[in-house]
Amino acid sequence: MGIYSCGPTVYWNQHIGHMYAYTQWGTLVNFLRYVGYEVKWVMNVTDVGHMVSDADEGEDKMEKGAKREGISVWDIAKKYQKQFEESLDAFNIRRPDVLCRATEHIPEQIALAEKIEKNGFTYLTKTGLVYDTAKFADYAKFANLKLNEMDSGARVEVDEEKKNPWDFLLWVTNQPEHIMKWPSPWGEGFPGWHIECTAMSTKYLGETFDIHTGGIEHIGVHHTNEIAQGYGAFGHQTANYWMHNAWLILKGGEKMSKSLGNGYTASQLKEMGFDPLAHKLLVLTSHYRKGLEFSLESLKASQTALFKLRNLVVNWPNGGVVDDNYKQKFIDLLADDLQVSEAIALIWKLTKDDIVSDQNKKATILDFDKVLSLNLGQKTVEEEIPTEIKKLAEDRVKAKTEKNWAEADRLREIIKEKGYVIEDGGRNGYKLKKA
Fold it and tell me: 3-class DSSP state for residue 182?
């Protein structure tokens, strides 16, 4: 079975909003392997060609990142691919079998664009090689696009030579100042964002594969254009099924985004005293198509639940067998469009089932954890901070809020004398640990 997932654009940190998607798709892959499929999971890493707009307008995100940090685009890509891979590890998401970078597959992208051109689906303008969507009658069908409304000004027209505003670039040649450039039959330039996914998915999975995943934001442009490229090159869709995740949003409906600076990373969760797998459990209590409203309060509750479940499992005796009845229910729930939240509820039901022995409960839940990857066989104990120390810490936060720096310093010294170190931050405005 072949699965292709749209991966990160590595120009900045991947925060927990991005990791929502990879948590869901990693669970999908785990489940398919759990029920016996041999799965090849491929994911791209976009390190060229993704403009600030998801269409063809604006600055390349990689170059924007390089300017922000004063390092090369190549170093930006390395830095943030490493951060992404570390985030996968932190959330216990098994890395894809193939994690492929766009810049390492330029020949494949050029070859695919040539194939589409040979089949009569392109034309040239001052901006480069353009896909002629008029040649693909079903272009608007996948996303139910209303092209007549788009034509009336929904998108900014930047190339008057384009036949239609929604025609998109396969290869860009009109940006001589662009740092990343390669020779091609159409001139020196770089690939458009959409061509990389079609080129790399079909290289590793063939012209037809089983599942293509991505965010709901990909439906109207990126995945629509991927489908068009598949028809232009091969005469058919590349993926049999397309699955799209909704977003993790903040309380009140605000989207988590890099530009707004409101996204936590896995490492920041750790610094705040959270187990990243508490966030993973929180994600798994939502359905991938519905998304999740995130708050630190809900994360704290999820951590309490995770630790409770782990400690239950660890304290039950070994030597049990998997309960077939619960296992079948677990499989049925996940086979029904990945109803992981219902599967989590099933686990809690199992913990309270007086008919199933504790040994068999343990064996069954550890078996389910092959899919969930929450380290449910690991005992976790939160360090209990004395109430007196917590009160001093809260008084110090209050003093700092009132800009009473002398009192804040005095309280810090008292806390230190009692054997604890206090730092700013954390979910309560402070972090405490033993000195």
Answer: strand
Owner of token pair 């170093």: 75
Domain identity same for 232 and 339: no
**DSSP 8-state assignment for residue 403:** T
Tens-place pLDDT, residues 339-390 = 999 999 999 999 999 999 999 999 999 999 999 999 999 987 555 677 888 8
Domains: count for the chain: 3
Indicate the residue type of 261: G
Q: Which domain holds residue 414?
A: 387-434
Q: Report how many helices (DSSP H) and strands (DSSP E) the chain contains, helices first.
A: 15, 13
Tokens, residue 93: 């998401």
Q: CATH no. for residue 314?
A: 1.10.730.10
Q: Which CATH number fits the domain that encloses residue 235?
A: 3.40.50.620
**Last-in-domain residue among 372, 401, 422:** 372
pLDDT digits (tens, 9 = 90+) for 148-203: 777 544 444 467 899 999 999 999 999 888 999 999 999 999 999 999 999 999 99
